[in-house]
Amino acid sequence: MEVNTEEIIPSIEELIRTIEQTVLIAEPENWIRFADLTGDYNELHREEDIAPGMYTAAFISTLAEIHSPNGFDYRRHKVKFTAPVKEGYVLNPHVDIQQFGTEVVYVIECRVPEVGCVLEGEIRFSKDALDVKVGEAEGQCKSVHFTQEDVNKYLETLKLDHLGYPQGIVPAMLVGAHFTELMLDVSGGEGAYLSQSLSFYEGLRINQDVTLHAKMGRIRENRPSRFALGAYRGAVPVATGSSLVTKDVSSLLEQ
Fold it and tell me: Would you list the DSSP string of 94-153?
């Protein structure tokens, strides 16, 4: 049952205006720092002047986190990359906010003038915990340990470090972006994200050890590959989900 959003968010119009007045100019210096921080060594970002898809996703996702309703936790994101982001593009966030019971949904887009939409998706915040999907972690893995310095650098590359992101918390998309290195390792160093979907069972704090896993599904000729993703703190799942990746990057270079 849909509930009046005004009951939870006193001024939804003001919240949308605040989010949409924040823009990001895509600059190679910043997206390469972001790629280095997250382990994204794809040469597209250094030689072809195409920003990491997760850089765009991190900008709008973290902006939404900063301006999320009090008492609600970041639970899910689904993002689809619809066009490459190049040097000088001005990323304009657009959001529609809806509430359904104990969930608040941000329907998001990043648009670039004279280019159009480069990312679309949704982010869900909830007062309720998600049911944990218990399963054995599989596939390529890596261990990560996020520090406050890592979070600060992440926010600086996105030009969001002045907006008061809470100390001690790891942004959800910083976790999501770190899966890129595993995807590249499994796919032989080539590939580009088409989409990512993650569900978060608990928030992650700095200085916690996390193991990320990525397993590629069955390979089909000339078809994108689907990866199963999982983040674990010990045996406890922090997040699980999937991503769709293409090895055909020629179309990106032509756009």
Answer: EEEEEEETTEEEEEEEEEETTTEEEEEEEEEEESSPPPP------SEEEEEE--HHHHHH
- Which of 194, 157, 161 has the alpha carbon at shortest distance from 28? 157
pTM (predicted TM-score): 0.91
3-state secondary structure of 207: coil
Q: What is the DSSP letter of 163?
A: S
Q: Which domains does the chain have, with CATH numbers?
A: 5-254 (3.10.129.10)
Q: Which amino acid is at 205?
A: R
Supply angle C-alpha 106, 57, 184, rounded to 5: 140
Of 217, 7, 29, the C-alpha closest to 97 is: 7
Region of 66 (left: φ > 0; alpha: ψ -120 to 50; beta: rest) is alpha
Contact 212, 166 (CB under 8 A): no
Cα distance between residue 62 and residue 60, in whole Å: 6
pLDDT (tens place) for every residue of the chain, 255 residues total: 344 444 555 578 888 999 999 999 999 999 999 999 999 988 888 888 899 999 999 999 999 999 998 889 999 999 999 999 999 999 999 999 998 889 999 999 999 998 999 999 999 999 998 887 666 667 789 999 999 999 999 999 999 999 999 999 999 999 999 999 988 888 777 778 899 999 999 999 999 999 999 998 766 667 788 999 999 998 889 999 999 988 776 666 566
